[in-house]
Write a structure and sequence with these properties.
single chain; about 250 residues; alpha/beta; Rossmann fold; seven-stranded mixed β-sheet
Length: about 250
């Protein structure tokens, strides 16, 4: 059974414009195949502690916070998904603090390319239009770059942006027709990976990330558990991200 995982960096739950945008994408996919399973989580529905920079995840192999918040549950759902959608409102020219915390808590996943083999998109909403200074594209590129760094294959359109009006429960999309069209485009792009008609493939960005992470985990690195992970999974003997995908897919 194919599965979708979505995390929304907003405390507004069902009133979040970002969540409603993502729900449109998921609903459009379900119209094609109602058997596809999905989980959409918002920051306002879960307990998520700040990363404290202790490096226990990379050095000792565990995060102390996983015992006291919901991150362990989220990570289980995330690992089990075939498609990943990360969405955030724009807060002060960047992702929300909640989304930043979610990303910070996945430090080892960047070192281990944990989500290799999954497809995904990034979604962003903002209360104002793009300008030369406050360009939502820059925030989207940041979110997309971190998704790539965990091994996710970004599909076209790899990110979606929606301008909003109002606040809280009264938030509406500035151009609902555009939002609906964008949601359908995203659904059409993601569905082949869920139906099995398209396999995840490598690209230049993923190849560069693989090369840089492999070089980072040299013997003198203090990221001992991450290096152990590469050794245990035979990743140092692999020469490319494409080869890693073939290993995963086989």
């Amino acid at each position: 059974m194919k599965k979708i995982f979505a995390f929304i960096g907003s405390h507004h739950k069902e009133y979040s414009a970002t969540r409603r945008f993502v729900q449109m994408v998921v609903d459009s996919i379900l119209q094609k195949d109602a058997s596809i399973l999905f989980n959409i989580y918002s920051a306002g529905e879960i307990r998520m502690n700040f990363c404290r920079g202790c490096w226990a995840c990379s050095v000792a192999g565990y995060c102390p916070h996983d015992r006291t918040d919901d991150m362990g549950m989220l990570n289980e759902k995330l690992r089990d998904a075939d498609v990943v959608i990360l969405g955030s409102p724009v807060y002060e020219m960047n992702v929300s603090g909640q989304m930043k915390t979610f990303l910070d808590r996945h430090l080892t996943w960047f070192h281990r390319l944990t989500l290799a083999g999954k497809a995904g998109i990034a979604v962003m909403t903002s209360g104002g239009p793009a300008t030369a200074i406050t360009a939502p594209d820059d925030t989207l590129k940041y979110l997309a770059a971190l998704m790539l760094s965990m091994g996710i294959k970004l599909v076209e359109p790899y990110y979606l942006f929606a301008e909003t009006r109002g606040t809280g429960k009264s938030t509406e999309f500035a151009d609902r027709e555009k939002v609906q069209n964008d949601a359908l485009k995203a659904a059409n792009a993601l569905y082949p990976y869920l139906s099995g008609s398209t396999a995840v493939e490598s690209d230049p960005n993923l190849e560069q990330i693989f090369k840089e992470v492999k070089a980072k985990l040299k013997p003198e690195s203090n990221l001992s558990r991450d290096r152990d992970y590469w050794n245990e999974h035979g990743m140092f003997a692999i020469n490319s991200f494409a080869e890693l995908l073939r290993k995963i897919q086989s």
